[in-house]
Amino acid sequence: MPHPAAPFPMTRPRRLRQSDWMRRLVRETSLGVDDLIWPLFVVDGQNERQDIPSMPGVQRVSVDLVAEMANEAAGLGIPAIALFPYTDPSVKTPGAEEAWNPENLVNRATREVKRQVPDIGVMLDVALDPYNSDGHDGIVRDGVILNDETLMALEKQALAQAEAGCDILGPSDMMDGRVAIIRQALEQHDFPDVAILSYAAKYASAFYGPFRDAVGATGALKGDKKTYQMDPANTDEALREIAIDLSEGADMVMVKPGMPYLDICTRVKREFGVPTYAYQVSGEYAMIKAAAHNGWIDGQKAMIESLGAFKRAGCDGILTYFAKDVAQLIAEEGPLG
Ligand code: PBG
User: Fold this and answer.
1) What is the CATH number of the domain that holds 326?
2) Range of 63's domain?
3) Measured between alpha carbons, how far is residue 46 from residues 67, 231, 326 in Å?
4) b/e map 149-177, b = 16+ CB within 10 Å
5) Which CDD domains does the entry mention (predicted)?
6) How many domains are there within the chain?
7) What is the average per-residue pLDDT within 28-45?
8) Which of 148, 177, 222, 326 has the greatest CB tally within 10 Å of its CB?
9) How far is the CA of 207 from the centre of ligand 1 (A)?
10) Is 256 designated active site?
11) What is the pTM of this model?
Protein backbone atom coordinates (compact mmCIF):
# COMPACT_ATOMS: atom_id res chain seq x y z
CA MET A 1 0.00 0.00 0.00
CA PRO A 2 1.61 3.32 -1.00
CA HIS A 3 1.70 5.93 1.72
CA PRO A 4 -0.47 8.98 1.29
CA ALA A 5 1.62 12.02 0.30
CA ALA A 6 1.10 13.76 3.62
CA PRO A 7 1.84 13.78 6.49
CA PHE A 8 4.93 11.71 5.65
CA PRO A 9 8.10 13.72 5.08
CA MET A 10 9.45 13.78 1.53
CA THR A 11 12.80 14.97 2.78
CA ARG A 12 14.44 12.70 5.31
CA PRO A 13 17.87 13.86 6.47
CA ARG A 14 18.07 10.61 8.42
CA ARG A 15 18.55 8.70 5.14
CA LEU A 16 22.10 9.96 5.06
CA ARG A 17 22.73 8.91 8.65
CA GLN A 18 21.53 5.34 8.47
CA SER A 19 24.88 3.56 8.46
CA ASP A 20 28.50 4.16 9.21
CA TRP A 21 29.48 3.98 5.51
CA MET A 22 26.76 6.47 4.57
CA ARG A 23 27.82 8.85 7.32
CA ARG A 24 31.41 8.60 6.14
CA LEU A 25 30.35 9.20 2.55
CA VAL A 26 28.61 12.50 3.35
CA ARG A 27 30.97 13.71 6.07
CA GLU A 28 32.00 17.32 5.44
CA THR A 29 35.07 17.58 7.63
CA SER A 30 37.45 15.28 9.38
CA LEU A 31 40.35 15.51 11.74
CA GLY A 32 43.69 14.18 10.57
CA VAL A 33 47.15 14.05 12.04
CA ASP A 34 48.24 16.93 9.79
CA ASP A 35 45.91 19.21 11.75
CA LEU A 36 47.85 18.95 14.99
CA ILE A 37 50.46 21.00 16.81
CA TRP A 38 51.53 19.52 20.16
CA PRO A 39 52.50 21.93 22.97
CA LEU A 40 55.16 20.62 25.40
CA PHE A 41 56.53 22.08 28.64
CA VAL A 42 60.27 22.05 29.23
CA VAL A 43 61.97 22.03 32.62
CA ASP A 44 65.61 21.94 33.70
CA GLY A 45 67.37 18.69 34.56
CA GLN A 46 68.03 15.29 33.10
CA ASN A 47 65.41 12.55 32.73
CA GLU A 48 63.12 14.83 34.73
CA ARG A 49 59.33 14.60 34.63
CA GLN A 50 56.98 16.74 36.70
CA ASP A 51 53.23 16.35 36.83
CA ILE A 52 51.09 19.46 36.40
CA PRO A 53 48.14 18.88 38.73
CA SER A 54 45.73 21.12 36.81
CA MET A 55 46.60 19.38 33.51
CA PRO A 56 46.29 15.65 34.15
CA GLY A 57 48.30 13.64 31.63
CA VAL A 58 50.60 16.56 30.80
CA GLN A 59 54.08 16.83 32.29
CA ARG A 60 56.98 19.21 32.28
CA VAL A 61 59.95 17.31 30.95
CA SER A 62 63.68 17.91 30.61
CA VAL A 63 65.35 18.62 27.27
CA ASP A 64 66.45 14.99 26.72
CA LEU A 65 62.85 13.81 27.10
CA VAL A 66 61.50 16.61 24.88
CA ALA A 67 63.67 15.19 22.10
CA GLU A 68 62.22 11.73 22.79
CA MET A 69 58.68 13.09 22.68
CA ALA A 70 59.42 14.97 19.48
CA ASN A 71 60.61 11.71 18.00
CA GLU A 72 57.40 9.97 19.05
CA ALA A 73 55.35 12.82 17.60
CA ALA A 74 57.22 12.64 14.31
CA GLY A 75 56.64 8.88 14.23
CA LEU A 76 52.92 9.50 14.55
CA GLY A 77 53.03 12.09 11.77
CA ILE A 78 52.39 15.17 13.92
CA PRO A 79 53.80 18.05 11.84
CA ALA A 80 54.95 20.36 14.64
CA ILE A 81 55.48 20.80 18.37
CA ALA A 82 55.38 24.01 20.40
CA LEU A 83 57.77 24.38 23.34
CA PHE A 84 57.11 26.35 26.52
CA PRO A 85 59.55 26.76 29.41
CA TYR A 86 59.11 26.38 33.13
CA THR A 87 61.57 29.03 34.24
CA ASP A 88 62.95 28.81 37.75
CA PRO A 89 61.75 31.87 39.73
CA SER A 90 65.38 32.75 40.54
CA VAL A 91 66.00 33.38 36.82
CA LYS A 92 63.04 35.73 36.34
CA THR A 93 63.74 39.46 36.27
CA PRO A 94 61.73 42.66 35.60
CA GLY A 95 63.57 42.94 32.26
CA ALA A 96 62.96 39.26 31.35
CA GLU A 97 66.54 38.99 30.03
CA GLU A 98 66.39 35.18 30.13
CA ALA A 99 64.03 35.40 27.13
CA TRP A 100 66.97 36.02 24.77
CA ASN A 101 69.54 33.84 26.50
CA PRO A 102 70.76 31.47 23.74
CA GLU A 103 71.07 28.82 26.46
CA ASN A 104 67.57 29.18 27.89
CA LEU A 105 65.41 26.09 28.11
CA VAL A 106 63.44 26.46 24.91
CA ASN A 107 66.50 27.39 22.85
CA ARG A 108 68.41 24.38 24.17
CA ALA A 109 65.40 22.15 23.56
CA THR A 110 64.97 23.50 20.04
CA ARG A 111 68.58 22.77 19.14
CA GLU A 112 68.30 19.27 20.57
CA VAL A 113 65.05 18.50 18.75
CA LYS A 114 66.38 19.87 15.47
CA ARG A 115 69.53 17.76 15.87
CA GLN A 116 67.70 14.53 16.69
CA VAL A 117 64.41 14.96 14.84
CA PRO A 118 65.06 17.30 11.92
CA ASP A 119 61.74 16.51 10.25
CA ILE A 120 59.41 17.95 12.84
CA GLY A 121 58.57 21.65 13.00
CA VAL A 122 59.41 23.55 16.17
CA MET A 123 57.33 26.51 17.22
CA LEU A 124 58.23 28.89 20.06
CA ASP A 125 56.21 31.60 21.76
CA VAL A 126 57.58 35.10 21.50
CA ALA A 127 56.41 36.65 24.78
CA LEU A 128 58.08 37.58 28.02
CA ASP A 129 55.72 36.07 30.59
CA PRO A 130 57.68 32.90 31.41
CA TYR A 131 60.77 35.06 32.11
CA ASN A 132 59.26 38.15 33.66
CA SER A 133 59.15 38.46 37.44
CA ASP A 134 55.87 40.36 36.97
CA GLY A 135 54.33 37.46 35.07
CA HIS A 136 53.29 39.82 32.27
CA ASP A 137 53.92 39.43 28.56
CA GLY A 138 55.46 42.87 28.43
CA ILE A 139 57.88 44.99 30.41
CA VAL A 140 56.13 46.67 33.34
CA ARG A 141 56.96 50.05 34.80
CA ASP A 142 54.86 51.58 37.57
CA GLY A 143 52.13 49.07 36.86
CA VAL A 144 51.98 49.98 33.15
CA ILE A 145 52.80 47.48 30.39
CA LEU A 146 55.19 49.32 28.10
CA ASN A 147 54.54 48.58 24.45
CA ASP A 148 57.60 49.83 22.62
CA GLU A 149 60.17 48.80 25.24
CA THR A 150 58.64 45.35 25.03
CA LEU A 151 59.08 45.31 21.25
CA MET A 152 62.83 45.77 21.69
CA ALA A 153 62.90 42.76 24.01
CA LEU A 154 60.74 40.64 21.72
CA GLU A 155 63.06 41.35 18.81
CA LYS A 156 66.01 40.01 20.79
CA GLN A 157 64.00 37.01 21.93
CA ALA A 158 62.86 36.20 18.39
CA LEU A 159 66.39 36.39 16.99
CA ALA A 160 67.77 34.10 19.69
CA GLN A 161 65.00 31.61 18.91
CA ALA A 162 65.64 31.77 15.16
CA GLU A 163 69.34 31.31 15.84
CA ALA A 164 68.51 28.16 17.86
CA GLY A 165 66.76 26.72 14.80
CA CYS A 166 63.12 27.46 15.54
CA ASP A 167 60.92 27.09 12.44
CA ILE A 168 57.81 28.99 13.52
CA LEU A 169 57.71 31.99 15.81
CA GLY A 170 54.44 32.56 17.65
CA PRO A 171 54.22 36.12 18.97
CA SER A 172 51.72 35.66 21.81
CA ASP A 173 52.22 38.91 23.68
CA MET A 174 49.61 41.13 21.94
CA MET A 175 51.83 44.23 21.90
CA ASP A 176 51.13 46.56 18.99
CA GLY A 177 53.65 46.27 16.17
CA ARG A 178 55.33 43.06 17.30
CA VAL A 179 54.88 41.13 14.08
CA ALA A 180 56.44 43.93 12.02
CA ILE A 181 59.48 44.24 14.23
CA ILE A 182 60.01 40.48 14.33
CA ARG A 183 59.56 40.05 10.59
CA GLN A 184 61.97 42.88 9.89
CA ALA A 185 64.56 41.46 12.27
CA LEU A 186 64.27 38.01 10.68
CA GLU A 187 64.78 39.43 7.20
CA GLN A 188 67.72 41.59 8.27
CA HIS A 189 69.48 38.73 10.04
CA ASP A 190 69.11 36.24 7.23
CA PHE A 191 66.25 34.17 8.57
CA PRO A 192 63.82 34.69 5.68
CA ASP A 193 62.34 31.21 6.01
CA VAL A 194 61.32 31.41 9.65
CA ALA A 195 57.53 31.58 9.63
CA ILE A 196 55.33 33.69 11.90
CA LEU A 197 52.16 32.20 13.30
CA SER A 198 50.82 35.13 15.23
CA TYR A 199 48.51 34.81 18.18
CA ALA A 200 46.54 37.49 16.39
CA ALA A 201 43.20 37.28 18.17
CA LYS A 202 44.14 36.42 21.69
CA TYR A 203 41.57 37.13 24.34
CA ALA A 204 42.02 38.01 28.03
CA SER A 205 40.65 34.66 29.09
CA ALA A 206 40.03 32.74 32.27
CA PHE A 207 40.92 29.55 30.41
CA TYR A 208 44.71 30.03 30.64
CA GLY A 209 44.93 29.19 34.35
CA PRO A 210 46.47 25.71 34.13
CA PHE A 211 49.06 26.92 31.58
CA ARG A 212 50.20 29.58 34.01
CA ASP A 213 50.66 26.80 36.58
CA ALA A 214 52.63 24.82 34.02
CA VAL A 215 55.08 27.64 33.25
CA GLY A 216 55.19 28.81 36.85
CA ALA A 217 53.63 32.21 36.13
CA THR A 218 50.58 31.86 38.40
CA GLY A 219 52.18 33.24 41.55
CA ALA A 220 54.13 35.87 39.63
CA LEU A 221 51.31 37.52 37.71
CA LYS A 222 50.27 40.85 39.16
CA GLY A 223 46.84 42.00 38.04
CA ASP A 224 45.40 40.87 34.72
CA LYS A 225 46.24 41.10 31.02
CA LYS A 226 43.28 43.20 29.91
CA THR A 227 45.32 46.15 28.63
CA TYR A 228 46.85 44.00 25.91
CA GLN A 229 44.79 40.83 25.43
CA MET A 230 41.40 41.29 23.80
CA ASP A 231 38.03 41.84 25.41
CA PRO A 232 36.03 38.58 25.10
CA ALA A 233 33.00 40.64 24.05
CA ASN A 234 34.54 41.71 20.73
CA THR A 235 34.47 40.24 17.23
CA ASP A 236 35.18 43.08 14.76
CA GLU A 237 38.28 43.93 16.75
CA ALA A 238 39.59 40.40 16.15
CA LEU A 239 39.34 40.99 12.41
CA ARG A 240 41.25 44.25 12.74
CA GLU A 241 43.97 42.50 14.76
CA ILE A 242 44.25 39.78 12.13
CA ALA A 243 44.43 42.34 9.33
CA ILE A 244 47.22 44.21 11.12
CA ASP A 245 49.27 41.07 11.77
CA LEU A 246 48.91 39.92 8.17
CA SER A 247 49.93 43.34 6.88
CA GLU A 248 52.99 43.23 9.18
CA GLY A 249 54.12 39.89 7.76
CA ALA A 250 52.37 37.07 9.63
CA ASP A 251 52.19 33.89 7.54
CA MET A 252 49.52 32.19 9.66
CA VAL A 253 47.16 33.41 12.35
CA MET A 254 45.71 32.00 15.51
CA VAL A 255 42.55 32.46 17.53
CA LYS A 256 42.86 31.76 21.23
CA PRO A 257 41.22 30.27 23.28
CA GLY A 258 39.54 27.80 20.96
CA MET A 259 36.13 26.37 21.65
CA PRO A 260 34.56 29.45 23.26
CA TYR A 261 35.69 31.46 20.21
CA LEU A 262 34.65 29.28 17.28
CA ASP A 263 32.64 32.17 15.84
CA ILE A 264 35.88 34.13 15.55
CA CYS A 265 37.62 31.21 13.82
CA THR A 266 34.85 31.03 11.24
CA ARG A 267 34.84 34.74 10.53
CA VAL A 268 38.61 34.94 10.28
CA LYS A 269 38.82 32.03 7.85
CA ARG A 270 35.98 33.42 5.72
CA GLU A 271 37.27 36.97 5.58
CA PHE A 272 40.97 36.34 5.07
CA GLY A 273 41.34 32.82 3.68
CA VAL A 274 44.75 32.45 5.30
CA PRO A 275 46.05 29.49 7.32
CA THR A 276 44.02 29.80 10.51
CA TYR A 277 44.73 27.93 13.75
CA ALA A 278 42.98 27.64 17.05
CA TYR A 279 44.60 27.01 20.40
CA GLN A 280 42.56 24.59 22.48
CA VAL A 281 44.01 26.03 25.64
CA SER A 282 44.90 24.53 28.98
CA GLY A 283 41.56 25.34 30.63
CA GLU A 284 39.63 23.67 27.81
CA TYR A 285 41.83 20.60 28.17
CA ALA A 286 41.45 20.62 31.96
CA MET A 287 37.65 20.84 31.77
CA ILE A 288 37.40 17.79 29.53
CA LYS A 289 39.87 15.87 31.69
CA ALA A 290 38.14 16.80 34.94
CA ALA A 291 34.67 15.90 33.73
CA ALA A 292 35.93 12.64 32.27
CA HIS A 293 37.76 11.83 35.49
CA ASN A 294 34.50 12.22 37.38
CA GLY A 295 32.72 9.96 34.94
CA TRP A 296 30.49 12.83 33.80
CA ILE A 297 31.48 12.67 30.14
CA ASP A 298 33.27 10.19 27.89
CA GLY A 299 36.73 11.77 27.70
CA GLN A 300 37.77 10.24 24.39
CA LYS A 301 34.55 11.11 22.62
CA ALA A 302 34.61 14.65 24.00
CA MET A 303 38.21 15.02 22.85
CA ILE A 304 37.35 13.98 19.29
CA GLU A 305 34.20 16.09 19.17
CA SER A 306 35.92 19.18 20.55
CA LEU A 307 38.75 18.92 18.01
CA GLY A 308 36.40 18.18 15.13
CA ALA A 309 34.55 21.38 15.97
CA PHE A 310 37.61 23.39 14.99
CA LYS A 311 37.68 21.77 11.56
CA ARG A 312 33.99 22.50 11.10
CA ALA A 313 34.58 26.12 12.11
CA GLY A 314 37.14 26.42 9.31
CA CYS A 315 40.44 26.03 11.14
CA ASP A 316 43.40 24.54 9.31
CA GLY A 317 44.86 23.14 12.50
CA ILE A 318 44.76 23.07 16.27
CA LEU A 319 47.31 23.46 19.02
CA THR A 320 46.15 20.89 21.52
CA TYR A 321 47.47 19.02 24.53
CA PHE A 322 45.53 16.03 23.16
CA ALA A 323 47.72 15.92 20.04
CA LYS A 324 49.54 12.71 20.86
CA ASP A 325 46.43 10.88 22.13
CA VAL A 326 44.45 11.83 19.08
CA ALA A 327 47.32 11.03 16.71
CA GLN A 328 47.52 7.55 18.21
CA LEU A 329 43.83 7.10 17.64
CA ILE A 330 44.13 8.30 14.05
CA ALA A 331 47.02 5.86 13.52
CA GLU A 332 44.64 3.04 14.53
CA GLU A 333 41.41 4.24 12.99
CA GLY A 334 42.26 6.76 10.24
CA PRO A 335 40.98 10.34 10.11
CA LEU A 336 38.32 11.03 12.70
CA GLY A 337 34.94 12.49 11.91
C1 PBG B 1 51.89 33.36 26.97
C2 PBG B 1 50.93 32.29 26.63
C3 PBG B 1 49.79 31.89 27.34
C4 PBG B 1 49.31 30.77 26.70
C5 PBG B 1 50.14 30.53 25.59
N6 PBG B 1 51.13 31.50 25.55
C7 PBG B 1 49.20 32.39 28.60
C8 PBG B 1 48.81 33.78 28.77
O9 PBG B 1 48.72 34.56 27.82
O10 PBG B 1 48.58 34.14 29.91
C11 PBG B 1 48.14 29.96 27.15
C12 PBG B 1 48.04 28.58 26.63
C13 PBG B 1 47.11 27.72 27.39
O14 PBG B 1 46.36 28.16 28.28
O15 PBG B 1 47.12 26.51 27.09
N16 PBG B 1 51.73 34.57 26.43
Assistant:
1) 3.20.20.70
2) 30-333
3) 12, 41, 28
4) ebbebbbebbbbbbebbbbbbbbbbbbee
5) ALAD_PBGS_aspartate_rich
6) 1
7) 97
8) 326
9) 9
10) yes
11) 0.96
